[in-house]
Amino acid sequence: EVYNYVELGEELVARGHRLTTHSDTEVVLHAYLEWGLAFPERLNGMFALAIWDAREKRLVLCRDHMGIKPLYVAKTAEGVVFGSELKALRAIPGVGVELDRLALDEFMTSGYVVHPRTVVKGVEKVAPGTMQIFQRGKEPVERRYWQLAFRPDHRRRVADWCEEIEATFTEAVRMQLRSDVPLGTLLSGGVDSTVIAATMAELRGGAEGIDSYCVGIDVPGARNEFVHARTVAEGLGLTHHELVLSSEQFGDHMLEAATIMGEPLVEPMVGQLLAVCRHARRRLTVMLSGEGADETWFGYPTYRLHNRIERLQKVVPRRVLQLVDRSVHALAARHLLPPKAAKHAATLIEPLERRYLGLSYFDLGLKASIYSPEMRHHLRDHDSREALRRLYEDGVGGPEV
Asked: CA-to-CA distance for 256 and 107, rounded, in angstroms?
């Protein structure tokens, strides 16, 4: 989906192009004809694209800026194969089905497989904000067309930043409301989904025709969000729907989601999202949702913890922090404190980037205890944190960003 296809189409027509449809796909093709390999820099949206240029005998694979849409690629004796699902490539002769043990080890560390690896050896992900170009008689080329950059302008007032953020956010929602089909939104009642729903209602001149959906699980101790979502929906006047899954339904949807995604996952919301989207599909074609708000605005408790640790490291002598670290580890080893306490205590004496690397699902010791001797031997020279370190260093800006 290319959200700015209307604006791009108008610019292309002004440059002499003739568009015969209202499709964003046609706009993308004409953008390629107009700007060549610089065309992705003009796109605003989520996409996984493949363009075959018969004139240049060139295949261009392109993934959106943030990597929302998946795009897999593999090289075989017959040439290059690609697809938006991993299982599609596995069905092609010449693409192996061997497990990539390095990718599995990275998954055990971070909870996901970091690009370019996949769990299938020989199959890679096209990196976010990146093109891969294959041309007959030439070596493949990887070209990055976008990179998140943090360039603070301390001359601006906070009020100016707030105004720009609101304007940018509103414009993003406005572009995604371009639809002549029924639409709705996922609603948890949290800040991010509430702001999206409220902005939708504001842009449409009211909540009429906007459906909101919330999903939860009917199991003891489940932290469902129905009350918060219901409060927001009533306040905005949305047509609200709730979906309650039994434990059996939740398990079934998790298995189905894992099958669809083709790679291991640790996020339990994936099964719920699959269920609620399928439920909403009976009435809707388009549904808006938010992603990454807690990461963008430091919403998770982890970020506040890191901020406090930064302050502690400035005022408490390092030898004192080391003593606390050793004491907590000793208590955890005697099962007097949970293992997580030892993991967090270790962050007291580490710089910020190492603290992020240390917040793993399974630490090195635990992985070594469950891996077979063959697996440990295979991984003897592999540091699964290196993939996370690469992502961390890829950011441009201050350490916390």
From this structure: 20
